[in-house]
Amino acid sequence: MNKRHLLRVAVLGAGALLLAGAGWTQDFPPKKPVTLMVGFAPGGAADAAARLIAKKLTENIGQTVLVENKAGAGGNIAHQLTANGPSDGSLLLFGSIGPLTIAPHMMKLPYDPFRDLAPVSGAVHFPNVLVVNASSSIKNLADYIAQAKKEPRSITFASTGSGSASHLTGELFAQRANVELVHVPYRGGAPAMQDLLAGRITGYFAAPPTALPHIEAGRLTPIATTGLTRPAYMPNLPTVAESGFPGFEALNWYCFVASAKTPVPLLDRWNQEIVKVLNDASVREALARHGLTPHPTTRPELLAFMRKESAQWGDIVRQRKITAE
Asked: Is the pTM of the predicted complex or chain greater than 0.70?
């Protein structure tokens, strides 16, 4: 084979690769409606944010993006379904801190977040807010701690499931405050809130979208937020960090992931579309009204962030000897 023939083969090969890549981008958006799966029940923070973003994605790409709630196992069921799901770009997951970076340290999962799921983009992050029923005698964080010390294990705290952000926030606080709290897992933010409003549990490290309407209506008393700084929507509410626990920070977050079998060009295209939506002024304003901060990222940035969070929460799981309930 002479040099001229070799050059021709190389050029044709390169062209075929370019066409293959172009073919993937031409398949966007998918020809069928896109599913954005959420691992929690309707009415919570994940559901609220996902629906806002899905609406704008639908407008931008000209294809319907449907939110599908698959609650259970602290969100792990939805993550497993996505890991084993279609890889044609028609299924995205509103991934969450628990199944991606906490649960793997607590139990043997049927999927590996870093092997079976591909990062697409960050979505939103926010601090939790510790709330109690307005009829409770607890009015501030000092009262909360005093009761926990006076009557060990008398205080129950809700979460969106074992291994969720709200669960680990409670465990981290119990460790720092040296108190005994009783964890009560639920299948999402909405059912947890229902029991708190009914007086069946003491408190809940809740997501802002779930708690704010009830705080404004006077049904819940906010005790403290879990970020390092006070959120703009609660400027008068102290943080746990400034209430005697310097450096305390426990942020909740959601991101977009897909099956790891999804071709990279499709993942990159979804990243572009999601980042575009999260940078849209109307979307940012709508998310802010729910107490959520947009957090668009590149795919490598999200992967690095997930690895950092996994290391941090893995330490807490081991120190607190937390297991799946």
From this structure: yes
